[in-house]
Amino acid sequence: MSQAQGIYLISVVAETLDMHPQTLRKYERAGFLEPLRMGALRAYSDEDIARLRLIKHFVEGLGLNLAGVEMALAFTGELLEMRERLSETARPSPGADESLRQVDRMLASLGLRLVKRRGRDAASSGPGGAWPTAGSGESIEFSAPR
Length: 146
Known about the structure:
Number of strands: 6
Strand order of the largest sheet: 1-3-2
CATH class: Mainly Alpha
Largest sheet: 3 strands, antiparallel
CATH architecture: Orthogonal Bundle
Strand content: 15-25%
Order of helices and strands: EHHEEHHHEEE
CATH topology: Multidrug-efflux Transporter Regulator, Chain: A, Domain 2
Structural class: alpha+beta
Shape: elongated
Number of helices: 5
């Protein structure tokens, strides 16, 4: 049974994340997310908000520019896919366990850590946030930007 997905207008998202609406539009133009369009209005999902929190972490917490954010998002996605493939192996091996630890260290180098998802709260947990990973029952958590 899936949980209801929230839909939020740009003004609500901007206020919630303490970002200017133009910043949200800039991230959309950069291809970091694609909110639903309802005519001229943008509608953001809970997943969009979680992704924006991650982008904010990369920009404000790590000091990345847009090109860096693009690379960090791609790198994070690849690490998560690799981690998922490694954890799906029928017979865990010492090599696979070490590879998982290496992936976790690489995520940590981006200020991220993988945690078990706590339902809908994961997208807004803590002072930073969390980014749900597809179907894994886990989320990436990160610290609030300083």
